[in-house]
Design brief:
This protein has 350 residues and is mostly helical. Helix 2 runs parallel beside helix 4, helix 11 packs across helix 12 and helix 12 crosses helix 13.
């Protein structure tokens, strides 16, 4: 999430992955506007070499949406400009969802201000969803309905994150479930958060069902959840061991960091995507996975024994050294920075 500096300097922008519009979204939205107004024939779209200009007869709601996209473009460096443009958009359309989300991104994680903006955005999204033509609730995927609808999904996700940050876990989970019902293909990656939230809360059956809905995913964040669910359902058997080994093959550093004694203090980085086995995946998910495993001490102890087994140490250390180098924590003393990442227990053992 996001944090505003007390002295009014630029906040540290940390959109949860999937909540900042992709650069192509505005262009696709412009194409829809041009087709709706008869400025371009649908069959011409595949031959376009650049996105069309905005029509001259924009409605107030469309003008506000255009300004909201402009506001996002100023983040994170020129956040004051982004704030001013988002507020200008809300003058045109007080229910402009993306303008509200832009302002939400400038507030502190779990703050009252963040909650107010997230609720406004989600409530505005629901109103606009109710007015959508040709959209069937519970059948159609809102993300792919029209590019301008993607902010409606993001609004529900923003409220889910804010509620969880405030400790309102049941409400946060319900909102995350709403995100997935609106967008079953889950372009925001909400399933990865929700399955681990379920595990943190002890809702193992719900976690199992969600993993079943998105089977055979290669991502470490999913495989970690599979391993934990298998352990909690059936104990330290072959299925749990196989799932944990699959997770370690993808990113042993992330699994190791999820099992250390001390939770990482640093928040996830400013990334809108991640690569399996890369520093982005490790930094993005290590806190969430740590929380999930730490909620189940017996499972954590079992997994730690596997990670620390001599047959697995070389793989884990190789991943860890690569991640540590990318994070810049290797110092003149070699492994000191890496051991600090691993936590006080490992450093004491050294």
């Amino acid at each position: 999430m996001q944090h505003r500096n007390a002295d009014g300097q630029r906040p540290t922008m940390m959109f949860p992955m999937g909540l900042e519009p992709r650069p192509t979204e505005e262009g696709l939205w412009r194409m829809v506007l041009a087709v709706q107004r008869g400025l371009i024939e649908p069959e011409e779209l595949e031959h376009l070499t650049e996105y069309p200009e905005l029509p001259e007869d924009l409605t107030a709601e469309e003008s506000a949406q255009s300004l909201a996209y402009d506001a996002y473009d100023y983040l994170p460096q020129y956040w004051k400009n982004a704030r001013n443009i988002a507020e200008e958009a809300l003058q045109l359309d007080p229910e402009c969802v993306d303008a509200l989300l832009c302002l939400w991104s400038l507030e502190g994680e779990g703050s009252n201000e963040a909650l107010e903006l997230a609720r406004r955005a989600q409530e505005s999204a629901e109103k606009k969803i109710a007015r959508l033509p040709h959209w069937r609730r519970g059948i159609d995927d809102l993300w792919s309905h029209e590019p301008g609808c993607r902010g409606f999904v993001r609004a529900h996700a923003a409220l889910a994150f804010t509620l969880r940050a405030r400790g309102e876990n049941r409400e946060g989970n319900a909102m995350a479930e709403r995100v997935i019902s609106l967008n079953p293909t889950d372009n925001t990656g909400m399933r990865w958060h929700l399955v681990n939230w379920y595990l943190i809360d002890g809702a193992v059956r719900r976690a199992y069902r969600l993993l079943r809905d998105y089977p055979d995913e290669p991502f470490t964040v999913s495989l970690s959840a599979v391993a934990l669910v298998e352990f909690l359902r059936s104990g330290p058997g072959k299925n749990a061991h196989r799932a944990l080994m699959e997770a370690m093959e993808q990113n042993a550093a992330l699994i190791a960091l999820a099992l250390v004694t001390r939770r990482a203090d640093a928040p996830p980085p400013e990334v809108d995507a991640f690569t399996i086995g890369d520093v982005t995946e490790t930094a993005l998910w290590q806190r969430l996975l740590w929380d999930a495993w730490d909620a189940h001490p017996e499972a954590k102890e079992w997994a730690a024994e596997i990670v620390e087994h001599p047959d697995n140490v070389e793989r884990t250390l190789g991943f860890m050294l690569n991640i540590a180098e990318q994070l810049g924590v290797l110092d003149a003393n070699g492994l000191d920075g890496l051991l600090d990442l691993l936590g006080e227990d490992q450093e004491d053992e050294r």
